[in-house]
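Q: Now give one record:
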Amino acid sequence: DSLLIERLNNWSLPVLRVSLGIIFIWFGALKPFGDSPANEVITKTIYWFDPDIFIPILGFWEILIGICLLYTPLIRVGLFLLALQMPGTFLPLVLRPEICFIDAPFNLTLEGQYIIKNLVLIGAAMVVGGKLAPIKRVEN
């Protein structure tokens, strides 16, 4: 039991961070090529931006988040970019509920489930951020 807990303590955070990085790179890379299942939801929700411009920018933003999470010195930057991006992922729940719900508020469509799973990504990012060593300030 103690050995398992020790191993999990040693490996769980790096695995979580790398998993987050891979997910953001993967999902982000699909967007510019029109292969993301989220593209249609994004187009219908963020209708005030040209999707041919906005979706690739969002995809590259997500790739950047993933790269920052994989490269240890940039974790804080990645978490900041993630914090800016995540609220927007929930917009369809409010602006386009017909896309997200079969019967509101609990019976989600596949698109709604895709959006709600972002709660797990937010929680994982909070764990990664919560385990960072504080930045040491240089005193004069």
About this structure: The first helix runs from residue 2 to 30. Strands lie at 101-103, 107-108.
